[in-house]
From TrEMBL:
It catalyses: sphinganine + octadecanoyl-CoA = N-(octadecanoyl)-sphinganine + CoA + H(+). It is a multi-pass membrane protein. GO terms for cellular component: endoplasmic reticulum membrane. This is TLC domain-containing protein. Residues 131-323 form the TLC domain. Keywords: Endoplasmic reticulum, Lipid biosynthesis, Lipid metabolism, Membrane, Transferase, Transmembrane, Transmembrane helix. It comes from Electrophorus electricus.
Length: 333
């Protein structure tokens, strides 16, 4: 049963053009191609990333935060109330007036006391600025390194005598990027939970699927471009977050504006009109379309839809910033 499913899943006609088989992607004549087994290492590497992140946040980001004057605000603990805790966990964190009145009668508290309890209870769950600073610092350091690695990988491809063969720089670029995204999925339960939480999960899963498929089907040059396009704007986003938490508002605003420009250019212009255009328009000129063609472009399409969603949020933030809203509050949201 399992063997039959495996044979069907790895059927040549499903993932490769009609004139290719998996045998054609075996190493020969000095050419090296991607294999599924190459990607197994990304899971243990993701655990390594979590360990490195812990060390970085504790021994680099935390002292840096202290140097910049960041202090964690003391949160007021709420008195334990079994009735309210049950309501908070099972019904709503922000009860309406009718529910407040009903709960007041059950607990023997005033409505004002009740509203204060729920407000403080919500504040208890909100991540502190130090946690946000450490997380943004870690991501900033990774994206800077990843962007430099992507540039190196593209340069190596441009001068390689065997452009279709996997180069060492491409191998490590893929392995480290995939390991990092696995680590983001593994740490998602204790990371800062943002308003686009669901979209972030979809993005990470789509990215991992896209990278794994492009590796196995030897679409590595396209995959490298996709990663580089993404990393370029993330560098400015995470640096803007770091400066926002450090209260460097003017520099933060400048970096956020730069991030918005880079994001729009790379993800809404270069990504759809160059990268997706090439993966969608040119392949049918060389061979009949197949499932892998549609699958790969569908993953790119999912990423593009997420880019459009985030672009809408970015434009909304820029409008608020330009019309005088508090910058720190905007970035926090």
């Amino acid at each position: 049963m399992i063997e039959t499913i495996s044979e069907w899943f790895w059927w040549d006609r499903l993932w490769l053009p009609f004139n290719l088989t998996w045998t054609d992607l075996e190493d020969k004549d000095g050419r090296v191609y991607g294999k599924v087994s190459d990607l197994y290492i990304t899971l243990p590497y993701s655990m390594g990333f979590l360990i490195i992140r812990y060390i970085f946040e504790r021994f680099v980001a935390t002292p840096l935060a202290a140097f910049l004057g960041l202090r964690e605000k003391t949160k007021q603990n709420v008195e334990y109330n079994a009735i309210l805790e049950h309501y908070y966990a099972s019904r709503s964190k922000t009860p309406g007036k009718v529910d407040i009145t009903g709960l007041s009668k059950k607990c023997g508290w005033s409505s004002r006391h009740m509203e204060r309890w729920f407000r403080r209870r919500r504040n208890q769950e909100r991540p502190g600025v130090l946690k946000k600073f450490r997380e943004a610092s870690w991501r900033f350091v990774f994206y800077v390194g990843a962007f430099i690695g992507g540039i190196v990988a593209l340069y190596d491809v441009s001068i390689s005598p065997l452009p279709l063969s996997i180069l060492e720089s491409q191998y490590w670029y893929y392995i480290l990027e995939m390991s990092f995204y696995w680590s983001l999925l593994l740490s998602i339960t204790f990371d800062v939970k943002r308003k686009d939480f669901k979209e972030q999960i979809i993005h990470h899963l789509a990215t991992l699927t896209l990278l794994a498929f492009s590796w196995c089907a030897n679409y590595i040059r396209v995959g490298t471009l996709v990663m580089l396009v993404h990393d370029s704007s993330d560098v400015f986003l995470e640096s803007a977050k770091v400066l926002n938490y450090a209260k460097w508002e003017k520099t933060c605003n400048s970096l956020f504006a730069l991030f918005a420009v880079v994001f729009m250019v790379t993800r809404l212009i270069i990504f759809p009109f160059w990268i997706i255009h090439c993966t969608w328009v040119y392949p049918p000129d060389h061979y009949p379309v197949f499932f892998g063609y549609y699958f790969f472009n569908a993953m790119l399409g999912i990423l593009l839809m997420l880019h459009i969603f985030w672009a809408y949020l970015i434009v909304s933030m820029l409008k608020k910033l330009l019309f005088g809203s508090d910058g720190c509050e905007i970035y926090a949201n």
